[in-house]
C-alpha cells in the first residue's frame, strides 16, 4: 500500500506488520490503528520477535543492547551532576489502586533503647507487582501460550522461583541512556486522562519536539502524569482505566531497539482497545522482544528537571535486588543530568 511521499505500511492478510510511518496523515494513522486486532498482536509475536537473537542460553534479552559502548555514551551525558529519583515513595496506605500496601514494621526503636542495644531496626515486606510500587518486571514475569521469552516453558517458573530470565541476571545493574517522553507536555495538558491512548505518531512528535531520537540500548520512560492526577483527584481503579501506549507502538519500540520500557503506570493503555489482548504491550515487550519493564515510576521530578534544562536525555542507573529466581524487583531508578 503506497502512501504520500513514498511511505508505506507492509500488509499481510490485512494485518499491519510494521510500525506506522511518521509521514502518514492523521486520517491514515487512525485507519491503520483500527486494524490492530488480537490477530495482529499474534502476528507481531512472530514479526517483532527477538527469540534466538542472543542465543538459546541467553539470560538478559534486550538488556544485551546495553553494550559497553552504550554505557560510555551514557556516562558522557552527565554535564551538571544533578540526580533525580524516578521512584515513588513506598505506598503504605491501602487504596483502590494499592490492595497490597508496602509493609514497614519497626522491630526496635529509640524508645527504651539501652546501651546494650543502641540500634533501631525495621522490616520491609512488599508484594510489588501491580499498580502501586515502583519495580522492574523481569522477562520471566509473563507467559503467552505456555511460553516466556525465547520459547522457554512457563514450567521453568516454580515455587522455588524462575529458572530462566530471573531478575538476578541483572545483578550488574542498569547503566545506559534514559529518555523521558513527556506526553502531557506534548499535548499541552497537566496529565493524561485515564484511558488515553498514546500512538506511534505521538512518540515521533515528541522526538521532534525534544530534538532527539531513541536509539539501540536506550531506556524509554513514558510520562502520563499518573501521580499528579492521583494527588489532585485521589486514587482510582487504575488497573481498569489508565493512560498508556496503544498496541500499535510495539513495532516502534522494536524498530528503535529499546532495551527497557518504563512508565508511571504499567505502560499499556487500559482498556487496551484490542479485544482478546488485555495488555498487548506487556505481552509483546516481555515475551516477544525480551524487554524488561519499569512499572509505576514517579516521573514528576524528572519531568520538572528535564523541562528546566530543556534536556530530555540523561544517564539512567538502577540496581535490582539480587534475588535468584525473582520475577522482578522493587528498586529506585536514578536519572543524572
How would you classify the helix and strand content by structural class?
Answer: alpha/beta
How many DSSP E strands?
A: 17
The whole-number mean of residue pLDDT values reads 92
Inertia-based shape: globular
Residue share in helix: 10-25%
Low-confidence stretches: 1-25
Span of the ends, CA to CA: 43 Å
Please report which band the strand proportion falls in: under 5%, 5-15%, 15-25%, 25-35%, 35-45% or over 45%: 15-25%
Number of helices: 9
What integer value in Å does the Rg equal? 20 Å
The ordered H/E elements are EEHHHEEEEEEEHEHEHEHEHEHEEE
Largest sheet: 9 strands, mixed
The side-by-side strand order for the widest beta sheet comes to 3-17-15-9-11-13-14-6-16
Question: Would you mind describing this structure in some detail?
Answer:
- The protein has 337 residues and is of the alpha/beta class.
- It has nine helices and 17 strands.
- The protein has helices at 26-34, 38-47, 68-75, 183-187, 200-210, 226-233, 250-256, 280-288, 300-309; strands at 11-12, 15-16, 83-85, 103-108, 121-125, 135-137, 157-158, 161-162, 174-182, 197-198, 219-223, 244-245, 260-263, 293-295, 313-318, 328-330, 334-336.
- The strands form five sheets. A nine-stranded mixed β-sheet has the order 3-17-15-9-11-13-14-6-16, sandwiched between helices.
- Helix 2 packs parallel to helix 8.
- It is globular, with a radius of gyration of 20 Å.
- The model is unreliable at 1-25 (pLDDT under 50).
Amino acid at each position: 500500500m503506497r502512501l504520500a511521499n513514498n511511505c508505506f505500511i507492509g500488509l499481510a492478510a490485512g494485518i499491519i506488520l510494521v510500525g506506522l510511518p511518521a509521514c502518514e496523515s492523521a486520517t491514515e494513522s487512525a485507519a491503520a490503528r483500527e486494524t490492530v486486532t488480537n490477530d495482529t498482536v499474534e502476528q507481531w509475536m512472530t514479526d517483532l520477535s527477538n527469540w534466538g537473537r542472543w542465543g538459546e542460553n541467553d539470560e538478559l534479552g534486550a538488556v544485551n543492547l546495553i553494550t559497553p559502548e552504550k554505557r560510555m555514551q551514557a556516562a558522557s551525558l552527565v554535564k551538571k551532576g544533578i540526580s533525580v529519583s524516578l521512584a515513588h515513595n513506598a505506598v503504605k496506605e491501602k487504596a483502590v489502586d494499592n490492595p497490597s500496601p508496602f509493609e514497614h514494621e519497626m522491630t526496635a526503636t529509640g524508645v527504651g533503647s539501652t546501651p546494650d542495644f543502641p540500634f533501631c531496626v525495621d522490616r520491609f515486606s512488599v508484594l510489588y507487582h501491580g499498580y502501586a510500587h515502583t519495580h522492574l518486571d523481569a522477562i520471566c514475569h509473563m507467559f503467552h501460550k505456555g511460553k516466556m521469552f525465547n520459547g522457554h516453558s512457563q514450567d521453568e517458573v516454580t515455587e522455588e522461583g524462575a529458572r530462566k530470565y530471573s531478575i538476578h541476571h541483572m545483578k550488574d545493574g542498569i547503566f545506559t541512556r534514559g529518555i523521558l517522553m513527556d506526553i502531557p507536555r506534548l499535548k499541552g495538558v497537566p496529565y493524561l486522562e485515564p484511558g488515553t491512548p498514546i500512538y506511534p505518531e505521538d512518540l515521533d512528535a515528541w522526538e521532534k519536539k525534544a530534538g532527539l531520537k531513541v536509539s539501540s540500548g536506550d531506556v524509554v520512560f513514558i510520562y502520563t502524569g499518573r501521580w499528579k492526577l492521583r494527588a489532585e483527584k485521589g486514587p482510582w481503579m487504575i488497573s481498569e482505566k489508565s493512560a498508556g501506549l496503544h498496541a500499535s507502538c510495539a513495532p516502534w519500540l522494536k524498530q528503535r531497539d529499546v532495551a527497557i520500557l518504563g512508565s508511571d503506570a504499567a505502560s499499556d493503555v487500559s482498556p487496551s482497545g484490542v479485544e482478546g489482548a488485555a495488555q498487548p504491550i506487556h505481552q509483546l515487550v516481555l515475551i516477544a522482544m525480551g524487554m524488561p519493564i519499569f512499572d509505576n515510576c514517579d516521573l514528576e521530578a524528572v519531568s520538572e528537571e528535564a523541562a528546566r534544562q530543556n534536556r530530555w536525555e540523561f544517564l539512567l542507573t538502577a540496581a535490582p535486588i539480587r534475588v535468584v529466581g525473582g520475577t522482578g524487583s522493587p528498586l529506585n531508578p536514578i536519572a543524572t543530568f
